[in-house]
């Protein structure tokens, strides 16, 4: 009877350790542009867009420049179309890696002020 409890406890502890390791791998830290340049892993960089961007139709790639709160700038390459609310964005979060002098974003999170502002009554 005790052997069953010991085996069960070992299995439960094993699953808890496996879940913790799996969860840790999914975390993507926020870093500055300087830290993103030095990192070899996937990170999140937050900043303001400096231009409206340029979309390459043939390659299906969107290019734009991002500036963080420290004033550092980086060229972002996003493999996909320009987000619909990109021009109204006050802040953009880019998730990806820094490679070959550019930040290659696999995901863009666009934060628009209209979503967070209170509606005025007329």
Map the helices and strands.
Elements: H1 2-26, E1 30-31, H2 33-38, E2 43-49, E3 54-56, E4 61-67, E5 73-78, E6 91-99, E7 102-111, H3 113-116
Parallel strand pairs: 1-2, 5-7
Antiparallel strand pairs: 2-4, 2-6, 3-4, 4-5, 6-7
Summarize the structure.
The chain has 122 residues and is an alpha+beta fold.
Observed structural traits:
122 residues, alpha+beta, elongated
Description:
The chain has one domain (29-116): OB fold (Dihydrolipoamide Acetyltransferase, E2P). It is α+β, with helices and mostly antiparallel strands. It is elongated and about 70 Å long. 29% of the residues lie in helices and 36% in strands. A five-stranded mixed barrel has the order 2-4-5-7-6. It has helices spanning 2-26, 33-38, 113-116, and strands at residues 30-31, 43-49, 54-56, 61-67, 73-78, 91-99, 102-111. It contains three helices and seven strands; from the N terminus they run H-E-H-E-E-E-E-E-E-H.
CATH-derived topology? OB fold (Dihydrolipoamide Acetyltransferase, E2P)
Give the radius of gyration.
Answer: 21 Å
Order of helical and strand elements: HEHEEEEEEH
**What is the number of helices?**
3
In this structure, how is the largest beta sheet organized? 5 strands, mixed, barrel
State the end-to-end distance: 73 Å
Strand order of the largest sheet: 2-4-5-7-6
What structural class do the secondary elements suggest? alpha+beta
Assess the beta-strand content as a share of residues. 35-45%
CATH class: Mainly Beta
Which superfamily, in CATH terms, is the homologous superfamily?
A: Nucleic acid-binding proteins
How much is the average pLDDT?
84
